[in-house]
Amino acid sequence: MWFLFPALLINLLIILIPALLTVAMAFVSWDGTSDPVFAGFDNFRAMFADPVFSSALLNNVKWTALFLTVPIIMGLVAASLLLMVRKGRTFFQIVYFLPAIIATVVIARVWQGMIYNPDGGLIGWLHIFGFHLDDPLAHPSTALLAVASVDLWHWWGFMAVIFFAAFRQVDRAQIEAARLDGAGYFQLMRYILLPAIRPTIVLMMIMTVIWSFLAFDFVYVLTQGGPAFSSEVLSTLSYRYAFYNFTMGPAAAVALVISLFGLVATIFYVRVQQQELES
Amino acid sequence: MKSRAVVVKSCVTASRRMALICAMLSVLVPATATSAFAGDPISLWYQRGATPDQQRILQKDLVDPFNAANPGSPLTLDVRAGGSGDKQIRMAVLAGRGPDLVMTPGPSYALPLIESGHLLPLDAYIQKYHLDQRILAPALKAGIYKGHIYVLPRTFETMVLYYNKTLFEKNGWQPPKTLADLNKLAAAMQAKGITPFSVGNGDWRDANEWHVTVVLNHFAGPDNVYKALKGELPWTAPVFQQAIGLLNDWYQKGWFGKDYFSLTSDQQALRLAKGEAGMAPNGTFSFDFMTKAFAQTGQELGVVALPSLRDGVPYPTYEIGIGSTLSINKSSSNPDAAAAFLNYLYSDAFYDKISKDWPGDWNLPLTSVDATKLEKNVSPLFANTVTSFSKGVRDGNYGYTTWTYWPPATEDYLIRGIEQVWLGKITVNQYLQTMQDTFAKELKDGKVPPLPPR
């Protein structure tokens, strides 16, 4: 048991104490400099009364729905194709994984300036040929999707590499037997590969839920939640409360809401794990 | 730093090899370290971000001359990213650490640091170096808190109207002085397919507040803005409704073009320089962008004061912007050296250098600013703009920029909420009501920066 202590100590110092302080901060009125004053549930009332909070929460739900489907499907398809390819497999893995290792600020600026921009980007270039597309970051109806698309491009390759590693653990005998029985690609996926890597898929989906509610960097760099709060998410809202408005209480209250979703996802994962162990 | 004598003496009892090393090291100790502020080196975290060229200018004009004159307490300059530098400085100072010279984006950012006792009052240093005679009074007074001065204004900026002079001359247009002139000019421009205002917030979302600042000061008027900032007039008053309504009108009529949310600063300047747009309400801090863009196209840049948008609002009026302040950290181990740096910063010697290399952003509010002197280093256009601004302020024709005089949450809502008005999500009345509610709370909590009397 003693070998668990170093990890526990790190958890205590870096995670538990700051988490408890955040919980406490959600119940005080504090600007970060003066003395905190107990405020009861005022911060939560102010948070729920802010119309931007409900639209930010909805944006996070939309973000989660998008990331639970598109990159996972793309990752599974790409991983299954990698399984079938012998030559060039390493090359494709590198190509798929590259966006995941580039700094998010760099990716965001490249998309903002070189792709979406109507003057200097790909969209601006298409104008020359008569294709008058608008900058999707500039419209409330498309801003969130435009930001999410950048993150999707950045993220799906990571999923592909994770799923490929999982596929490689599947017993080759099962795959060969299925092929000998005449199974096609879709039957192979449905009856052999996907069931075999189900724990990995479930884990990635749960992590996706947690990470979706933590989404911050692309939104902050590309739109800062605009235009007109249309791409605001909970983490950018919390950041704004804390570092623009200097109201730490509401910022902590929003952070607790984010954590709540993460907690629900974690409990679900632990239950699934327990059920699998028991079975 | 120890003197040479002390270093050699401490090595006398060491081994021969150590003695040799000590002797070699002692050569590196300056023969004299007689600066009046000899002590710890001092630091400045430059929080606005700077391109590599700008960093070279800072090193050449700001750091090297000061260090040459003060070798005992050299300045270390640390350039931080523009979007997060102020937050890093705030966290460090609140933790009792941070740089000796504290740079903030304005008085409202410095206020919490003053109230929590993290900044030194500067009165004694101001007296010692006669800074009150060298810095314009309205700008200096923005740093007063409970009778003491804690912050000095680093940038002295205002909103002006840039315009394409070549385009104007070609079409026989005159820069506008009234709302009627502006309406007529904008209609003429749109008839020719020219966008009236080259503006955007693609790389700086806070650019929204420049336009709110313009209508509040040039339509509602500085007197009304002053009353509202003192809590004597609500932001929902009819004059402010009309002011924001006018701004919304400009947006709806297409005066801002269709790419407002995409255009970056250099793209806005280039569209103006090419004649695709006719005018650009922007800050004096953008002078550098504008001159570079016009140098590319060969057309001529013009700069005038913004028009009076309502009868009774004087022309010209210049809203005072202090986009950056400097203070001394209470935890500084060498405040005297930090004050000596401020003395150098507010000198004609430094202003001569920086106004030549980096006009616009480093416009210090010096009383000695004079068109004739300035023209030796900068374009007549910049010299005239700056001296007109200084004269306007001295004459009392000044207003208030939102980034200097508004409290933080109100300013944040002002920036983001106006987009909701432009995009039809909320009405002007709803926007101003939320602004009023937020402002009233911050006024009650003491977060509105102190306003010197008009």
From TrEMBL, chain A:
<dbReference type="InterPro" id="IPR000515">
    <property type="entry name" value="MetI-like"/>
</dbReference>
<feature type="transmembrane region" description="Helical">
    <location>
        <begin position="91"/>
        <end position="111"/>
    </location>
</feature>
<dbReference type="GO" id="GO:0055085">
    <property type="term" value="P:transmembrane transport"/>
</dbReference>
<keyword id="KW-1003">Cell membrane</keyword>
<feature type="transmembrane region" description="Helical">
    <location>
        <begin position="242"/>
        <end position="270"/>
    </location>
</feature>
<keyword id="KW-1133">Transmembrane helix</keyword>
<dbReference type="Pfam" id="PF00528">
    <property type="entry name" value="BPD_transp_1"/>
</dbReference>
<dbReference type="GO" id="GO:0005886">
    <property type="term" value="C:plasma membrane"/>
</dbReference>
<feature type="transmembrane region" description="Helical">
    <location>
        <begin position="191"/>
        <end position="222"/>
    </location>
</feature>
<feature type="domain" description="ABC transmembrane type-1">
    <location>
        <begin position="57"/>
        <end position="269"/>
    </location>
</feature>
<keyword id="KW-0813">Transport</keyword>
<keyword id="KW-0472">Membrane</keyword>
<feature type="transmembrane region" description="Helical">
    <location>
        <begin position="153"/>
        <end position="170"/>
    </location>
</feature>
<protein>
    <submittedName>
        <fullName>Carbohydrate ABC transporter membrane protein 1, CUT1 family</fullName>
    </submittedName>
</protein>
<dbReference type="InterPro" id="IPR051393">
    <property type="entry name" value="ABC_transporter_permease"/>
</dbReference>
<keyword id="KW-0812">Transmembrane</keyword>
<comment type="similarity">
    <text>Belongs to the binding-protein-dependent transport system permease family.</text>
</comment>
<dbReference type="InterPro" id="IPR035906">
    <property type="entry name" value="MetI-like_sf"/>
</dbReference>
<feature type="transmembrane region" description="Helical">
    <location>
        <begin position="63"/>
        <end position="84"/>
    </location>
</feature>
Automatic annotation (TrEMBL), chain B:
<keyword id="KW-0732">Signal</keyword>
<dbReference type="InterPro" id="IPR050490">
    <property type="entry name" value="Bact_solute-bd_prot1"/>
</dbReference>
<comment type="similarity">
    <text>Belongs to the bacterial solute-binding protein 1 family.</text>
</comment>
<protein>
    <submittedName>
        <fullName>Carbohydrate ABC transporter substrate-binding protein, CUT1 family</fullName>
    </submittedName>
</protein>
<dbReference type="GO" id="GO:0042597">
    <property type="term" value="C:periplasmic space"/>
</dbReference>
<dbReference type="InterPro" id="IPR006059">
    <property type="entry name" value="SBP"/>
</dbReference>
<dbReference type="Pfam" id="PF01547">
    <property type="entry name" value="SBP_bac_1"/>
</dbReference>
<feature type="signal peptide">
    <location>
        <begin position="1"/>
        <end position="38"/>
    </location>
</feature>
